[in-house]
Amino acid sequence: MSAPDVELLATIRSLHAQAGGLARVHRTHAALYARARRAFGSWRGAVAAAGLDYARERDQSLRRGLSLRDQRRAQNRSRPL
Questions:
Q1: Residue 81 reports pLDDT greater than 70
Q2: Spatial contact of 18 and 24, defined as CB atoms under 8 Å apart
Q3: What is the DSSP string of 29-49?
């Protein structure tokens, strides 16, 4: 594995450790996402090469999104008209 690939995987791990994880990386870090896809064939492949469980990450991201949606709906219902 080349040095740029090692750096790329370290960056993926670092983003994973931050709040929000790897959700929306394709929007927030488009260049990283594109580089990872070129280097590993897919984003899933890059995440796996970084030693992370892609399916688990995806499921957690979906759950966070649904939870936020539900919170917004509850807030909107509680507002007076």
A1: no
A2: no
A3: THHHHHHHHHHHSSHHHHHHH
Q: Which residues does 23 contact at the CB level (< 8 Å), separation at least 6?
A: 61, 64, 65
Single-letter amino acid code for the residue at 2: S
Query: Comparing C-alpha atoms, which of 64, 53, 52 is closest to residue 24?
Result: 64
Residues 11-54 pLDDT 10s: 999 999 887 788 889 999 999 999 999 999 999 999 999 999 99
Please give the DSSP secondary-structure letter assigned to residue 65. Answer: H
CA atoms within 13 A on the CB side of 77: 6
* Residue 79 scores a pLDDT above 80: no
